[in-house]
Amino acid sequence: MVAIGVGGADAVDAMSGMAWELQMPKLIGVKLTGKLRGWASPKDVILKVAGILTVKGGTGAIVEYFGPGAQSMSATGKGTICNMGAEIGATTSTFGYDKSMARYLKATGRSKVAAMCNKIAPYLTGDQECYEHPEKYFDQVIEIDLSKLEPHINGPFTPDLAWPLSKFAAAVKKNKYPAKLEVGLIGSCTNSSYEDLTRAASVARQAKEKGIEVKAEFTITPGSELIRYTAERDGLLQEFEKIGGVVMANACGPCIGQWARHMDDMKRPNSIMTSFNRNFTSRNDGNPNTHAFVASPEIVTAFAIAGDLTFNPKRGTLTNKKGEQVKLDPPKGIELPKAGFAVEDAGFIAPAKSGSKVKVAVAKDSQRLQLLKPFKPITTEEMTDMRVLIKAKGKCTTDHISMAGPWLKYRGHLENISNNCYIGAENFFNGERNKVFNIDKGQYMEVPASARHYQKKGIGTIIFGEENLGEGSSREHAAMEPRYLGVKAVVVKSFARIHQTNLKKQGMLALTFANPADYDKVRQDDKVSILGFDSFAPGKPLKIRLDHADGSSDTFDVNHSYNEQQIEWVHAGSALNKIRREFGLK
User: What's the CA gap between 513 and 535, in Å, rounded?
Assistant: First the structure.
């Protein structure tokens, strides 16, 4: 099998019996030779690959890692690499089955599965001729010698700005990044395996033994109760606490901005470093002035100890309490716990055997939960003389479209969470966030307020954007919110895969410029019409007409990737509406 990530809406469709479709992916092969050493870790493989492919370089492709270097890594190390594959837009990432996976299966109570896999191991990886001549079988091949791979620090503001450790200090000075590291954060779903924690703990232990005071705040977020309980039993969490680290709940936590950031001035440029997978503007703490960098847990720990982004743990020294110069030794890790994994309460609650008697009761005055009302299908008339809600400039991720952090309490209340719609996106026309000009009102407004005003007046709205719009967490909210606020179409130079699908699911038009330069023709005061919707069909481009305020106009083609089923979603108002009809529900 190959596992491919989908949005929640896709999962709902599949569970209800509808077909799930995906355009046949290309194949990118990453050949790994050599063996990781010193401070380098599996995290550095994906940080390196992100620098090569960029955040959209893997879009529409499966990334397969192979070679002797791949077999030398732990199963959880492979998991870290695959987990972060989403940051390069990959459809999915894979490794062939090997002995490290057998060890992991046995350690997690699945010895029978390991035994079965071992019997057919040659069939659970690529054919030898593919790996010997990868250029014949892959659309693109990347080769990385793990023996020469440096630790990487990626960022700020994007996970594909890759800096080798040897060049990072110079980059900090040249780009005037705030050199003082204020917080180091490790853990999350991406980097909290037992091996990760043991390597980071070995660095923390050194700091304690060598009398070094930690200069930055330091937090640890276990990825699950299984790993937290095991790490506490084996004394790993205590190693962090001894140097002032704070162990947080098993949750996404700071990765999505759910933590109490200690800041004296939110407008002050500052730096943090995490072992998470995403570092988009404002994602980790809601502050656009925070420069967030991504690295391995052991590198983050070392930098938290130093509190200085110009520090190089491979070469630099630190002053301890006695005034002595001491050096950190390379981290040492343990692949799997010698005493096995353990947990007392994994937190799993089995669902009812039958859902027939389950009732959904939501209080009428609830601010956190709200029953959904079906969206009405978009009509041809509604796509005439629309207004530009926002023309987003540059990177526009799902965190820009639907911020996390304090907003997450409204995830079950579409009306309330829509008040964060596109508030993090930069307005092309003034370079500001959450400040767009409402033509009808004749004044600048916050994005959601402007959308609601147009909607109340019966005026349709449209959004324009640039490359890879919607990268990041595949939250349905990033598509549901603009739909709820009356946006009829989103037109960009290119989409992130799952976000494009989510827009389709909500019955909207997700369109791309046939000529990306047409993005420049869109003006703030335009009336925008989409032409050809009455004959909307697969493979047939639509047209956009911009009627400018000065009396001139521009007309150009926009492409789409809708198939017959997806066009039915639009005509029904949403995919959920189509499911409802097929099941004979009101």
Answer: 19
